[in-house]
Amino acid sequence: MSEGTILKEDVKNELKKPRMYKVILLNDDYTTMDFVVEVLVGIFHKAADEATRIMLDVHEKGKGIVGVYTYDIASTKILQVEGLARQREFPLKAVMEEE
């Protein structure tokens, strides 16, 4: 065997879990509570009671955690939220934080 040969046993196939990101909705003074619930149900597939609880967190605490996703999914969800908000002329914003 030559020096450059790599044995199959020497190669480790370690898969790392992807980094996860929390998607957070931010409160503002103009977006209606009904619209926030609509976003949570439509984009994040939350049940109505869970969507209402998250919406109340956003309203009362200034922000609410919607879910935890991989980077690509989190950034896509944020784009969907802000796109729909823009269509409806609401200033609703979403951000992500690494978990």
Automatic annotation (TrEMBL):
Binds to the N-terminal domain of the chaperone ClpA. Belongs to the ClpS family. Keywords: Hydrolase, Protease. GO terms for biological process: protein catabolic process; proteolysis. It comes from the Bacteria. Residues 16-94 form the Adaptor protein ClpS core domain. Signal peptide: none annotated. It comes from Anaerobacterium chartisolvens. The keyword Hydrolase applies. This is ATP-dependent Clp protease adapter protein ClpS. GO terms for molecular function: peptidase activity. InterPro entries: ClpS (IPR022935), ClpS_core (IPR003769), Ribosomal_bL12_C/ClpS-like (IPR014719). Involved in the modulation of the specificity of the ClpAP-mediated ATP-dependent protein degradation.
